[in-house]
Structures are given as structure tokens and as C-alpha cells.
């Protein structure tokens, strides 16, 4: 990660934390000017390795820029100032950051940050065009308040957005494919203020959509009610009930390559929706319920052959794997992700078993993003070669 000298350099520390939270190892190279905005010791504390500022860094036996370039899978410059981009576009390598850029032959992402007038200047436009032509990717800048007090285009993109762009630059094995993910629970309304629901937070489905997008897919997220933010690069469709979720999925099923049904769809809904709030009574109240459509079974019956790849989830409280294997056959899906209720609800981790017709893979407790990648790895192996 390259950090150049702009006021947005303080956000570089947040980006390092975000990349490391996603499981990546990060090394930092800074311009001399960047050290005036954020101290090198900050990055030492975050990464465990002092940042490189000097091309003659005594900690490296050989050429520091060569070693860094050979070590990295991707390089991101955040913030990328007009001056740094001008030097990069011209092939000038007069400090540790630009020398590493010139030596690195993998994916490069720039996150520009500068005043609006600098961003719109013809010289900056030429340099950006040259860097794009050389294969670099750009994320941002965005519109908003600037350090000068002005408001305009020039703010550095937020760390989570930049991190997603970096991940997409490294791993794009789902590029060209469309992956539809359902997530969250559904709310089945009783009256204007009450509903039947469940404890699903939607975290697993959102992790799947996030990772699919990060790996280059067009990720479509059909989401029940949740407080989660839309992952970067994901097309989100909000629904409330099982019937609304079914309609949204049926509308799009013919144009996708894989469907991952992670949503906890309600099995039943009230037979009648009260137009006014139901009042308490002295005695017990009976509630008539009717079955909701089984979206997953409907998809399994609809498709011909193995397209799209179809993945279901089985959340159980007993006999987890046997119940998942029965579901696999009954609903005619390719894979069932089985887990116990105590391992999933409300957590950022999950422990699952991937149950397919010819295999059964138990995963250890993992972050839900890592679980998502394991599922998507299985899906990718069943998609056509790109």
C-alpha cells in the first residue's frame, strides 16, 4: 500500500485496518510528504512492520522496491495525490513509492484525493488516462466536503470501498457471471404493526454478495428487512415477505448463473391480514396460518440440467447433516450448506458443512466472509471456464 502526501492520508490507516480485517497481509510504503500527515509508527503498530520511506532502507539487504514488488499480490495508492499520479504516469521513480510502482507488475489501484480544481485540471486528466491505459484501476474520488472547506469532487473513497476494489483486482474468477443471493429473514404481516419473523440477521447472505462482487461477479442481493449496509458493488433489491422475495427471484432467475438461497424465508404467513391493529382479548387468540411457497424447491423443479447452479441452506437444531442430505434430494439442488442454529444466528462467524451428492466437507468455525468464499469456490468449479 502506497501512501502519498495529502490530508486524506489519515484514512490510509483505516484502509490498512480494513484490508487486514478481511484477512490480507499489508506492507506500507510512504512518500516523505506523507509522513508529515501521518506518522510512520501508526502503520508499524497496525501491520507489525515499519513502513518504507527511504529507498536506502537498511532493513533490506537488496533493493527495497524490488523486494516489495516481488512480495505483493496487489498495490494500492491511497491517497493518490496529483503529484504522485503525475510521476507514476511519467515513469518517474525518484522515491520508494514510485520506484515500487514502476517495479510492480501486478494489479494497481489508485484512490485519488485532491481539490476539485486539481482533479479537473487537464494535466491530471491526461495522467489518469495514461495510468488507465497502462492497466491501473481507479476508485473515486467522490463528491463531498474538502479540506479547504469547499464542496466538490475530490474526496478519497471510503476505506471499505477501496478494499473491495483491491480484492476485485486480485481475484476476478467470477467476472462475467451473475450471482443472485437471497439474505435475511422475511416479515409476514399480521396487522399494520405486527409481523411473524425469525432471528436471521442477514449477515451470511450479505457476506456472500460482498464476496461475489469482490471476485468480479455481478452480484444481485434480494434482501429481507435488515439493518445491514449494502456491500460495495452489489445490486440490492429490498423485499419484505416471502411472496415478495419469490416474485423478485422468479423475475431474475433466467438471467443468472448461480442462485444462493441464504435467506431464512418464513414457512407460513397469516391467512388474513388485519386492516387495523389487533386488540388484546381476555381469552386466548387463534391464528390461522397458510403455507408460503417453497422458493428453493420451486427453483429446483424449474431449472433444466445444472444451470443455474443452485445452492440452499439448512439451518437445523438436530441431525444437521442427515437433514441437509434429505433436503438436497428433495429440493433438487446442487449444494446444501448445513449448520446448527447455535453456530449461525447473530454471529460474525459460522461453522458449516457443505453437502453435495458426491461429497461432504465440514469447515471449521470461520468468519462469514471466509465461509462465503468456500461456498463460492464450490460454485465457481461448476461454472463454465471463462
Overall mean pLDDT stands at 90
What's the domain count? 2
Structural class: alpha/beta
Amount of helix: 25-40%
Rg is 25 Å
**What is the number of helical segments per DSSP (H or I, 4+ residues)?**
13
The CATH topology assignment of the largest domain is Rossmann fold
Shape: elongated
Query: Any idea what the CATH superfamily of the largest domain is called?
Result: CoaB-like
Subunit arrangement of the protein: single chain
Question: What is the CATH-assigned architecture of the largest domain?
Answer: 3-Layer(aba) Sandwich
Question: Kindly, what is the distance between the CA atoms of the first and last residues, rounded to a whole number of angstroms?
Answer: 30 Å
DSSP, total strands: 21
Strands, helices and their partners?
Blueprint: E1 2-3, H1 9-21, E2 29-30, H2 40-47, H3 64-71, E3 75-80, H4 82-90, H5 96-103, E4 108-112, H6 116-120, H7 122-133, E5 137-138, E6 142-145, E7 151-155, H8 159-170, E8 178-183, E9 188-189, E10 195-196, H9 203-214, E11 218-223, E12 234-238, H10 242-252, E13 258-261, E14 268-270, E15 289-291, H11 295-302, E16 309-316, H12 320-330, E17 335-340, E18 349-350, E19 353-356, E20 359-362, E21 366-367, H13 368-381
Parallel strand pairs: 1-2, 3-4, 4-5, 8-11, 8-13, 11-12, 13-16, 16-17
Antiparallel strand pairs: 6-7, 9-10, 14-15, 17-19, 18-21, 19-20
Helix pairs in contact: 1-2, 1-8, 3-5, 4-7, 9-13
Please give a quick description of this structure.
This protein has 386 residues and is of the alpha/beta class. The protein contains 13 helices and 21 strands. The strands form 7 sheets. An 8-stranded mixed sheet has the order 12-11-8-13-16-17-19-20, with helices on both faces.
Amino acid at each position: 500500500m502506497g501512501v502519498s502526501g495529502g490530508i486524506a492520508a489519515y484514512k490510509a490507516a483505516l484502509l490498512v485496518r480494513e484490508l487486514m480485517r478481511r484477512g490480507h497481509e499489508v506492507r506500507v510504503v510512504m512518500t516523505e510528504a506523507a509522513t508529515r500527515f501521518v506518522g510512520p509508527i501508526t502503520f508499524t503498530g497496525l501491520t507489525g512492520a515499519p513502513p518504507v520511506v527511504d529507498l536506502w532502507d537498511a532493513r533490506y539487504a537488496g533493493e527495497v522496491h524490488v523486494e516489495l514488488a516481488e512480495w505483493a499480490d496487489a498495490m494500492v495508492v491511497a491517497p493518490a495525490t496529483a503529484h504522485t499520479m503525475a510521476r507514476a504516469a511519467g515513469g518517474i521513480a525518484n522515491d520508494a513509492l514510485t520506484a515500487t510502482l514502476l517495479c510492480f507488475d501486478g494489479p494497481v489501484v489508485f484512490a485519488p484525493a485532491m481539490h476539485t480544481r486539481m482533479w479537473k485540471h487537464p494535466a491530471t486528466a491526461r495522467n489518469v488516462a495514461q495510468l488507465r491505459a497502462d492497466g491501473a484501476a481507479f476508485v473515486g474520488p467522490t463528491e463531498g466536503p474538502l479540506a479547504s472547506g469547499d464542496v466538490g469532487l475530490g474526496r478519497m473513497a471510503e476505506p471499505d470501498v477501496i478494499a473491495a476494489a483491491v480484492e476485485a483486482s486480485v481475484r476476478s474468477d467470477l467476472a462475467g457471471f451473475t450471482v443472485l443471493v437471497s439474505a435475511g429473514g422475511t416479515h409476514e404481516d399480521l396487522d399494520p404493526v405486527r409481523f411473524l419473523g425469525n432471528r436471521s440477521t442477514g449477515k451470511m447472505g450479505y457476506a456472500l454478495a460482498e464476496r461475489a462482487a469482490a471476485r468480479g461477479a455481478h452480484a444481485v442481493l434480494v434482501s429481507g428487512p435488515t439493518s445491514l449496509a449494502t456491500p460495495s458493488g452489489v445490486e440490492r433489491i429490498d423485499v419484505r415477505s416471502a411472496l415478495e422475495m419469490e416474485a423478485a427471484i422468479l423475475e431474475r432467475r433466467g438471467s443468472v448463473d448461480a442462485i444462493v438461497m441464504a435467506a431464512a424465508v418464513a414457512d407460513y404467513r397469516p391467512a388474513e391480514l388485519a386492516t387495523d391493529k389487533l386488540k388484546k382479548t381476555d381469552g386466548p387468540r387463534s391464528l390461522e396460518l397458510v403455507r408460503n411457497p417453497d422458493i428453493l424447491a420451486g427453483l429446483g423443479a424449474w431449472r433444466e440440467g445444472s444451470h443455474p447452479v443452485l445452492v440452499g441452506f439448512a439451518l437445523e437444531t438436530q441431525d444437521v447433516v442427515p437433514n441437509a442430505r434429505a433436503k438436497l434430494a428433495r429440493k433438487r439442488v446442487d449444494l446444501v450448506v448445513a449448520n446448527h442454529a447455535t453456530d449461525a444466528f447473530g454471529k460474525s462467524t459460522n461453522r458449516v458443512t457443505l453437502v453435495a451428492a458426491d461429497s461432504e466437507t465440514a469447515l471449521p468455525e470461520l468468519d462469514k466472509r471466509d465461509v462465503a468464499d468456500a461456498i463460492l469456490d464450490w460454485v465457481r468449479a461448476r461454472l463454465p471456464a471463462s
